[in-house]
């Protein structure tokens, strides 16, 4: 099918005939202007007469790990948007992620992006399992870099939590793969809940292929120009499922002892590290606890998290991003401001040299800065607060008496 559009360009009307759903690239589509200082950079105090006005809040100081330098310590946490078809990043993602760059976020991490099709949480998830998905991602990376921010992606496999309905999607049954949902252990006992599918146990060949898929995904991220990748080992998805004795009852070398349960993660890290430039940092996100201490039997807890933090540092992880929960429908979470920060603080204290990201209901500038000033973490990641207010960084600047750089196009909005 073809469609014909009348396009007025500089007072000249032309007819363009294109295949349906083909995007037309216009001459000005990739127009950028110089941003000598990244939005969100510290420019000085707003009111120099206030006490300690000359002290730069730590959250507005630059941060460097390997070849990655960001203008401030604010990280946009990965957040699933369920706005993709066949894994492709779209104009929605360009606007969604790009807006955080124009408004001052130091580092932006794209949502959990599947390394294989069956690793998606839902059919509407983004993917990085084929080369054709690189250009759309690179377009976003180019835009974010032009603003002065840095960009990474979360490499993911949902495991037994795959092939579920996105909360606003209306897709046919044929879009799902309920008979190809996998986990470290299989059968009805390992179904996450009634809304998820019964997983089958991954074979050794499946495991090897999945590990390779993480590596090739990292290589594609580099080709797209990304500054970092984050391996998703949290929230009850596949890597977390291997780590936790709640979801891993294997009797081979990938199950049983902590060393065996961590083997899959460590092999993924080594494969990613082998396929991603050594000068670029690798992040890892983990859940520090399953929150099921009330149940009989062993679970995943902070002590094991601290131990694997030491192992992953040796394997090539540069930054450890500490979240929690997601591996059991029976979890009991008492959420509140900073509720996950103590987990990050413990890792930071017990694993010297490993950079740590804290997350968990951090909703304001002073709160974020206190986490860093009290040496509980090196970076702070913000999720839903960025959805409520994409200009979170600029609001935090006002709260901290910081004159932060606006993008050149937004500078008139300062006053």
UniProtKB/TrEMBL annotation:
CDD domains linked to this entry: OYE_YqiM_FMN
One Pfam family named in its UniProt record: Oxidored_FMN
Domain NADH:flavin oxidoreductase/NADH oxidase N-terminal: from-to ranges: 59-399
Signal peptide: none
Gene Ontology molecular functions: FMN binding; NADP binding; NADPH dehydrogenase activity
Cofactor: FMN
Keyword tags: Flavoprotein, FMN, NADP, Oxidoreductase
InterPro entries, per database record: Aldolase_TIM, OxRdtase_FMN_N, YqjM-like
Organism domain of life: Eukaryota
Protein name (record): NADH:flavin oxidoreductase/NADH oxidase N-terminal domain-containing protein
């Amino acid at each position: 099918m073809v469609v014909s559009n009348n396009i007025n360009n500089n007072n000249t009307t032309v007819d363009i005939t294109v295949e349906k759903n083909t995007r037309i690239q216009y001459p000005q589509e990739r127009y950028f202007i110089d941003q000598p200082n990244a939005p969100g950079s510290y420019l000085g105090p707003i009111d120099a007469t206030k006490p300690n006005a000359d002290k730069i809040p730590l959250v507005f100081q630059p941060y460097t790990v390997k070849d990655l330098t960001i203008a401030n310590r604010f990280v946009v946490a990965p957040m699933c948007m369920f706005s993709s078809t066949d894994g492709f990043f779209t104009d929605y993602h360009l606007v969604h992620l790009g807006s955080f760059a124009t408004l001052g976020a130091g580092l932006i991490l794209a949502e959990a992006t599947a390394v294989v099709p069956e690793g998606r949480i839902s059919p509407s998830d983004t993917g990085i399992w084929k080369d054709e998905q690189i250009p759309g991602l690179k377009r976003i990376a180019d835009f974010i870099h032009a603003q002065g921010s840095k960009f990474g992606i979360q490499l993911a496999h949902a495991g037994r939590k795959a092939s579920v309905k996105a909360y606003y999607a209306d897709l046919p049954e044929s879009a799902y793969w309920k008979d190809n949902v996998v986990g470290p252990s299989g059968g009805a006992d390992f179904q996450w809940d009634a809304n998820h599918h019964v997983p089958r146990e991954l074979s050794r060949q499946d495991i090897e292929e999945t590990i390779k898929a993480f590596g090739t995904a990292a290589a594609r991220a580099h080709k797209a120009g990304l500054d970092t990748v984050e391996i998703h080992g949290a929230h009850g998805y596949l890597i977390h499922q291997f780590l936790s004795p709640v979801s891993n009852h294997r009797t081979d070398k990938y199950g049983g002892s902590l060393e065996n349960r961590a083997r899959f993660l460590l092999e993924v890290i080594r494969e990613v590290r082998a396929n991603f430039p050594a000068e670029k940092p690798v992040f890892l996100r983990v859940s520090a606890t399953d929150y099921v201490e009330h149940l009989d039997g062993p679970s995943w807890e902070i002590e094991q998290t601290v131990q694997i933090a030491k192992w992953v540092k040796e394997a090539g992880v540069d930054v450890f991003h500490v979240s929690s929960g997601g591996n059991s429908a029976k979890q009991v979470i008492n959420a509140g401001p900073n509720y996950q920060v103590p987990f990050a603080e413990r890792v930071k204290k017990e694993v010297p040299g490993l950079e740590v990201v804290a997350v968990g209901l951090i909703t304001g500038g002073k709160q974020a800065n206190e986490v860093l000033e009290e040496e509980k973490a090196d970076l702070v990641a913000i999720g839903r607060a960025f959805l409520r207010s994409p200009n979170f960084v600029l609001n935090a600047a006002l709260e901290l008496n910081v004159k932060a750089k606006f993008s050149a196009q937004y500078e008139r909005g300062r006053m």
